[in-house]
Amino acid sequence: MKRLFFALWPDRGVRAQLAERAGLLQIDTGRPVPGENYHVTLVFLGNVQEQDIPGLLDAAGRLRISRFPLQIDRCGWWKRAKVAWLAPETTPAPLQELVEQISRFSINAGLSIDNRDYSPHLTVARKLSRPVTAMSIDPVHWDVGEFCLVESITHQQGARYRVMKSWALF
Predict the structure, then answer these.
(1) How far apart are CA 99 and CA 169, in angstroms?
(2) In the structure, what pLDDT confidence band is assigned to residue 8 with cuts at 50, 70 and 90?
(3) Residue 82 burial by Cβ neighbours in a 10 Å radius (0-12, 13-18, 19+)
């Protein structure tokens, strides 16, 4: 079994801008997410059996979604989850379409996925004991040109992510 999810994975330049915005939040409680783990989850799959992975790779490779701009322009926190996040004010239509198509083929593959409304975000800190003020931030402009399948590997220090495969958007 592998713990997997589909995600948007920022390039080095976008990742540096995101880290700079996260640093402005002045989070003094909790555990910051390492910059190398920054991503926007598309669909969380959970534990997937090895024999199901080739079908997911094949289905993902057949998607034809347009490249799209993503503007990360706000921050906030979720009290229940105790996480601080950066997120777009609006969800671009191609991003919503990408999530819907990945969800569809994942369900068709027999996987159980979260059926809550999609809320794109990038987690920047976990286990917070105090809120982060929700506000607009200087936007990070991200030209999203690919998506990927990522494996989550849990270590004593926390999760580390490994991109298994990426696919270009058109």
Answers:
(1) 13
(2) very high
(3) middle
